[in-house]
Amino acid sequence: MRRPMEVLKLKKIIERTLDQNKAQNIVAISLKGKSSIADYMIIASGNSSRHIQSLSETIVKKLGEKGMGKFSVEGRTSNDWKLIDAIDIIVHIFHPEKRKFYDLEKMWCDPTNSKEAII
User: Fold this and answer.
1) 9-78+86-108 in CATH: which number?
2) What is the pTM of this model?
3) Cα dist. 51→94, 96, 107 in Å?
4) Rounded to whole angstroms, what are the CA distances from 69 to 54, 72, 79, 118?
5) Beta-strand relationship, 72-74 and 40-45
6) CA–CA separation, 84 vs 116, rounded Å?
7) Residue 85 vs residues 5, 14, 63, 113, 114: alpha-carbon distances, Å
């Protein structure tokens, strides 16, 4: 596990990369106190299978450039979703229909925490 400041830096890099590459509806959810799988989950949508693929490749490239070498990617052959497990942060990139189907925000967001919001 990384130190808290490193995790926040990584979170900002991922959020900025998604935003700069036109990801839609970017949401960051704190998992602290909810799960031990990671500190944050970031969820975003791409507007096509190519866009989703490009977003995941760009994040992986950026993580490598920043020396954040420990990560894995799931859904490499899927057109509808990608998951990047960066140890302390899990990134989900969905086609909007799949995102609506899985509705991870509803599952993981604390409805009383207004800070868990769209970026």
Assistant:
1) 3.30.460.10
2) 0.86
3) 10, 12, 25
4) 19, 9, 25, 27
5) unpaired
6) 20
7) 18, 12, 11, 24, 25
